[in-house]
Structure formats: structure tokens, C-alpha cells
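USER:
Make up one protein:

ASSISTANT:
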Amino acid sequence: MAYADNTMTLATRAFTTDPIFAAMDAHRSATIAFKAAVDRRKAIEKGLKGLDCPDTPELIAAREREAMTCFAEGNAAWGISSIRPTTLVGLSALLRYAAEVIISGEDWPSQEMELPNRGCANVDWSTFLHMTLADAVDGILSRPALAA
């Protein structure tokens, strides 16, 4: 039982100190807000008889909300790819989270980002995430005592 207690302590400490957990929570929240905005816009359009409906103030506001939440979700996704996990628990959680998003049918951003300080013209989200993960592993392994 001491092993389980120690593992829980390491996981709890990682959750409270590793910035990747806050980034994943921000992305989850942004995704929920975006889905709600899409659902709201669709409900309004359905009430107005489909996509060829007039631009009512309510529909315009719903479309603006959808665009805002889409932008926020994309920023949160790029945030995840740029924040280095500082613990092995955080690194593992990020790898699982990135896969779970894809398995759930969602997509990561498709646009590219310019990384002149990395010697790259443009890279997609996945490549940027891989570069960040490699840096995170290097950082974790370079510490004197390997911690979770």
C-alpha cells in the first residue's frame, strides 16, 4: 500500500505543479464552449428553417459567439502544444489527452505556425507538439533527481 500512496502523492504533486494540466483544462473548457456555441447556432437556424434563413440579430450574435469560441479553442490547442510538461505524470497525461481528442472525433488545429527561432519555416500543430514533448523529456531527464 505504501507504493500506491507514494504514486498518489507524486500524481497529486504533479497535478498541482505541472502547467500542462491547466493548459489541458483550458482546452477542455474552450472545446465545451465552442460545441455549445455551434449547437446554439444550429438550433437558431433550425428554428428559422435551415441555412437559407434570414440574418436575425439572434443568429448574427450566435455566429459571432461561435467564431469567438472557435478562436479561443484554437488558441487553447496551440497553448497545449507550446507548454512543456514538467513532470512524467504531466507528459503521460498530455500524450493520452492528445490521442483522446482525436479518438473522440475532434481535430487539432490544421493551420501552420511559423517557428523562426527553431529553424523551421512553418510547422503544423502535431509537429510543434512533438518538438515540445521532446524538449519536455530533455528537461525532465536533465534534473538531478527524476521526479514524477
